[in-house]
Amino acid sequence: MIYGIGTDICDIRRIRETFERRGVRFAEKVLGPHELTVFHDRYQRVPARGIAYLATRFSAKEAFSKAIGMGMRMPMTWRDCEVVKAPSGKPGLRLHNALATWFEAKGLTAHVTVTDETDYAAAFVVVETRE
C-alpha cells in the first residue's frame, strides 16, 4: 500500500550559485558520507558533473521528505538520507540514525528515481508499507 509520494524539480543553476557562495560547506550540509565521496570525485574530474550530482541528491531528499510527509524536520535530515546506486545502476535510498529507526519502525520501503538535464534535476519517490 502506498504511504506517500513525493516529487521535486531543482534548478541546477541555483545549486551552482549556492555552491559558489558557500563552497564545499553546502555539499557537506546536503550530502551523506558516501555521497560526499562521489561528489568530490565527480567535481574534481568535471565540476559541472559534480554540481549536477549535488542537485539530483538535493532533489531526491526533498522528494523523499514529501513522500514521508515530514518536510525537513526531525527525524528527517539531509545527511541521514543518502541516494545510492545498486550495481545495476538503479538508484535506492540508504537511511541512517534516527531516520532509519523511524522508517523501519513504520515498516516502510522506498523507491526513488532521479534525472538531470542541462538546467534541471528532478526526483520522484514512492514510499510503501511493507504489509
Automatic annotation (TrEMBL):
Q: Specify where it is mainly localized.
A: cytoplasm
Question: Could you name the domain of life of the organism this protein comes from?
Answer: Bacteria
Q: Kindly list the places in or outside the cell where this protein is found, as annotated in its UniProt entry.
A: Cytoplasm
| Keyword match Lipid metabolism | yes
In alphabetical order, the GO MF annotations are: holo-[acyl-carrier-protein] synthase activity; magnesium ion binding
Q: Which residues bind Mg(2+)?
A: 8, 62
What is an annotated GO biological process for this record, any one? fatty acid biosynthetic process
The record's catalysed reaction(s) read: apo-[ACP] + CoA = holo-[ACP] + adenosine 3',5'-bisphosphate + H(+)
Keyword set, alphabetical order: Cytoplasm, Fatty acid biosynthesis, Fatty acid metabolism, Lipid biosynthesis, Lipid metabolism, Magnesium, Metal-binding, Transferase
One Gene Ontology cellular component annotation held by this UniProt entry: cytoplasm
Main EC class the enzyme belongs to: transferase
Q: EC number(s) on record?
A: 2.7.8.7
State the Pfam families in the record. Answer: ACPS
Q: Which positions, given as ranges, span the membrane?
A: none
Essential cofactor(s): Mg(2+)
Q: Which family does it belong to?
A: Belongs to the P-Pant transferase superfamily. AcpS family.
Task: State the protein's purpose.
Answer: Transfers the 4'-phosphopantetheine moiety from coenzyme A to a Ser of acyl-carrier-protein.
Name of the protein described by the UniProt record = Holo-[acyl-carrier-protein] synthase
Gene (name only): acpS
